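Notes from hallway chat w/ T.B., transcribed later so I don't forget. T.B. wanted the structure written out for a chain they're using in a teaching module, and asked if we could keep both sequence and structure tokens in one place. Agreed to drop them here.
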Amino acid sequence: MNVNIFKDCEAVMDNGLVEARRRFANDSTAAIEIQLKPGGEIPEHGTPESVFFYVLEGTGLLSVDGDIAEIVPGMVSQCDANIPKYIKNNSQGLLKVLVVKMN
């Protein structure tokens, strides 16, 4: 069994406002937990993989191909490969999002 804690996982980003850690990865899938402090954001970008976002905690904004949605815990959103997307914490609390990349 592979069990891990956020702080013990490989960091893929840590800039003071955004901390992202790889929770799981194999040849076809990767799960990355992103924790965004107030004002933190992942700038618009595309990825070669399809992804889905699962909001764990907090609120914020998610943009997929120019469509912007307010996100809340329990919300899931899917994004195809090479589509521009960004996440922003525009709240006063912590925003946690699980991003799953699928080849």
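Follow-up for T.B.: The two ends are 23 Å apart (CA to CA). Might be a good example for the class.
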